[in-house]
Amino acid sequence: NAGVTQTPKFRVLKTGQSMTLLCAQDMNHEYMYWYRQDPGMGLRLIHYSVGEGTTAKGEVPDGYNVSRLKKQNFLLGLESAAPSQTSVYFCASSYEWGDRYEQYFGPGTRLTVT
Amino acid sequence: DAKTTQPNSMESNEEEPVHLPCNHSTISGTDYIHWYRQLPSQGPEYVIHGLTSNVNNRMASLAIAEDRKSSTLILHRATLRDAAVYYCILRVANNAGNMLTFGGGTRLMVKP
Questions:
Q1: Which residues share a beta bridge with B34?
Q2: N or C, which end of chain B is more exposed by having fewer CB within 10 Å?
Q3: A75 vs B62, B72, B86, CA distance in Å?
């Protein structure tokens, strides 16, 4: 049981390049999330999904797109990277069962845009 | 969204109890109080959550004020491994997406 995994762990992009971050979870969770964390700050929600085939915007969605074609995967795309997107990106998944609720986070992807 | 207020940082001695406060004066009746922590260079991890009653688990205890306008995360015996940023978060039950809104958190430093 690997939990939440993220690929890649590190990436350096030039301004204008594109890339896709992959998040995978093996816990059969319905909900999945993408956050970004800038130095010294808390996490901010970019996009989320409440189930396979669904996506929705979070707090800071501009410049990003997402897809959830399979329940276990949640992809985050940057079509034209900008230096302001330099950050650490965290993926999370969650379940809700009665009063129980918990988000499980991946180890993060450190992205630098030059 | 209802907001939380936490001190920016706190210090503790190893093997002593730690009380991390959180104010949430605009909490509504259906908001759950969640605590997560983030160890250096890692993603956040769940610590504990509650609605009205105090809660205990293997990691910590959560004490919730009677009027629910504040809560305290209690680490009974701090270890060096507990040095992390602790986030107090309110979650609206059954909101679309079950989202969590992270604030700045409290950076806990543990001295040997």
A1: B49, B89
A2: C
A3: 35, 36, 28
